[in-house]
Design a protein that fits this description.
mainly alpha, two-stranded antiparallel ribbon, 9 helices, about 75% helix, about 0% strand
Amino acid sequence: MVRRTRKKFSQTERRKLRRDRLNRLLPNALTMLGLCCGLTAIRYGLDERWQLSVVLIAAAAVLDGLDGRMARLMGGQTELGGQLDSLVDAVSFGVAPIMIIFLCSLTNAGGVGWAISVLFVVCCVLRLARFNIASSDTNLPQWTSNYFTGVPSPAAGGMVLLPLVLHIETNWNFLLSAWLTLPWTLLIACLMIAPIPTHSFKRFRVPRKLVVVYMAGIALLAAAMITEPWLTYSAVIVLYSASIPFAIHSYNKKNNEEALRSSGASDVAENHDFEN
């Protein structure tokens, strides 16, 4: 009978193993919290408690932004974490927001409303699948990591809730009319799978000279979220939507510069071969 012997680790190695496990656990824990927020948002939507539903979707978006950044900072990025993040995004920013919109508005459109709701989720899943494929492509220039292809699912989930948020603030019933929410939902679904570049903000770095300014801006945003949450939410969504044309222009400019550099390098290589 063969007796297995356990490998003995030094105290330093054991500490490193525990730290590595913790580095992998914390980002995934935040991802799971985001999933709980998305599912709970559906639960409150069934009770027509729209404000809590929107707050939970917003909390899921914040957690989604934190888990990836924490994983990169702590060196805890894993294949499991990446796949888990995409699955959670499909629920928290695909299923949950559209269920809330369907319950408060699109249900009045009957089968058409349900068909548009299903289309929104399908586009969200397709967008996430395309993102996973693009993430594994190592041949792309480094600057392309500053852009997504299509509107990312957290932003789309927030954008599709904009009519509901404005209704909470203004109490205008027209904002929940299917005549408005149907084309709006269809537009957001198309933007998720459209081949247009959008800002990713993954490699966003604050210059040292502007640290104090950015801290003051964050404090101002936090104060606005506390005092006027629905107007602030709407303003953030509108500003993000307005940034899409600028992202397209910036991407095309950098892409043209990259093409010119590649063309120049190929011309130099051809001239060198000709001289030889």
